[in-house]
# Entry
Amino acid sequence: MISLKNIQTEIDASFLYKILADHEEDPNIASVFRQMSEIEHGHAIAFMKKNNLDASKLLPPSTKAKILNTIGKILGYDYILGVLLDTERNLSSSIISSRKRINAGSIGGNALRAAVLGGNDGLVSNFSLVMGIAGATSGKSVVLLTGLAGLLAGALSMALGEWISVHSSKELFENQMQLELEELENNPEGEELELALIYQSKGIPEEESKKMAKEIISNKDLAHDVLIKEELGINKEDLKGSAMEAAITSFLLFSIGAIIPVIPFFFIGGMQAVIFSTVLSGLGLFLIGASITLFTGKSVWYSGFRQVIFGLAAAAVTFGIGKLIGVSVLG
# Structure
């Protein structure tokens, strides 16, 4: 039994592809959109028949799809194409590429990039927090307690966010894979045409694309594997990632950055601790900025000192605010 939700998904996709086709200036891309609309319409009819429902009485597009259409009128119809990346990722990406625009990136990040950014978040946020409290009070224990509380709260928040992100992504992928299997079982002809269109959008000649698609669809297991990769852009290896592992990693990376400005307050207090904390944090910020050059290709000195300037500026603002608040309260 196929859920009404899946039927509605096909109806909405057909509706949105038709809108894209009607507003596309490139006739070749418009043709692809129009054929995709017909394929999704065919999926919906096949699903209706599978559920012993009257296929002549298809459900109308959902409120969500109509809202997307309205947003498209305001922000441009590329917005709708961006939404469809969730269900037709590779086809839409190929179309974006063919129009010489920025190609949509793949889901999932580089581990080193995540480490650098996680440490940066922890350092900058907790450094600013510690400086704000240090400006408001000279009490060593108060600053230390606040710094540790900020570390724990921030790290837990990051960990929970990462867990939800990974877990939700896996659920989304699994749902899309199941829907793809249902489409393959109930409308293999439509999936064959869809796969051929994907290959055509990548620049493969039409006849060769159709031949490749026909051979693949003849083997159901192979066809499903190919479709989830080519149509959805899903790599099965990505589903093996642990949400808990990602959460723990995020917690540790944030904590490493967040502990740096707190270290001096374990041993000393007052302005001396503030100076040492600033020096340590400045070194940490420079290393983070230098590490970012692995992705940007910019100068190590430029990126490093830029990160230091931004981080120190944020901390100086919070320190100044803390000083004003402290004077006001004491006065």
Remarks:
- DSSP finds 13 helices and no strands in the chain.
- Residues 140-186 form the longest helix (47 residues).
- Residues 111-166+242-330 form one domain.
